[in-house]
Amino acid sequence: MAATKTARKPASKTARKTQRAAAKPADAIKLLKDDHKEVKGWFKDYEKLEDEGEKLALVQKICLALKVHTQIEEEIYYPAAREAIDDDDLLDEAEVEHASAKQLIAEIEAMSPGDRLYDAKVTVLGEYVAHHVEEEESEMFPESRDSPLDLKALGVQMAARKAELMAQAA
Q1: 48-82 b/e with 16+ CB inside 10 Å = b?
Q2: How far apart are CA 4 and CA 49, in angstroms?
Q3: Contact 45, 58 (CB under 8 A)
Q4: Given CA atoms 116, 120, 122, 125 in this order, what sign does their dihedral have?
Q5: Which helix (H) or strand (E) holds 153?
Q6: What single DSSP character describes residue 146?
Q7: DSSP letters of 93-124?
Q8: What tens digit of pLDDT does each residue of 124-135 get?
Q9: CA 25 to CA 40: how far, in whole Å?
Q10: Is the pLDDT assigned to residue 25 strictly greater than 90?
Q11: Are 167 and 16 a contacting pair, CB within 8 Å?
Q12: Which pLDDT tens digit goes with each residue over 100-120?
């Protein structure tokens, strides 16, 4: 007789997606690029919204994703990349960009969608993220691929940490 799975599905689509990613992690760069693509899409979705409740829900999703993403980069990917690639300036800039994004996230989280400058701050955060993503994907990631970094092992570690952080936030 065949065994059946009785594992419970996580409640949200994001939680299920995170659980699947942790179960079969990609390499570190694919994981980060997938995050980039997802958040980029959410910023585009935000531009079309008018309802304040919908804006708030989407911004909360964006901010959580960015906070988790920056944390796994800072804890795992950047230290490994710093050892493997010879580009301290690029990594230093990424660290400063993260600090700027975190500051803007904190300001946005302290606001409400009807507040003056709310939409402007979300738009600027999207622009910061787009700039940061462009630098990572065109410079840092190719340098990492050409380095001795074990991107698969790094991906496993990052996916596990991401799943842990998302579970803590749920």
Answers
A1: ebeeeeebbebbebbbbbbbbbbebbeebbbebbe
A2: 42
A3: yes
A4: negative
A5: helix 151-169
A6: T
A7: HHHHHHHHHHHHHHHHHTS-TTSTTHHHHHHH
A8: 999 999 999 999
A9: 21
A10: no
A11: no
A12: 999 999 999 999 999 999 999
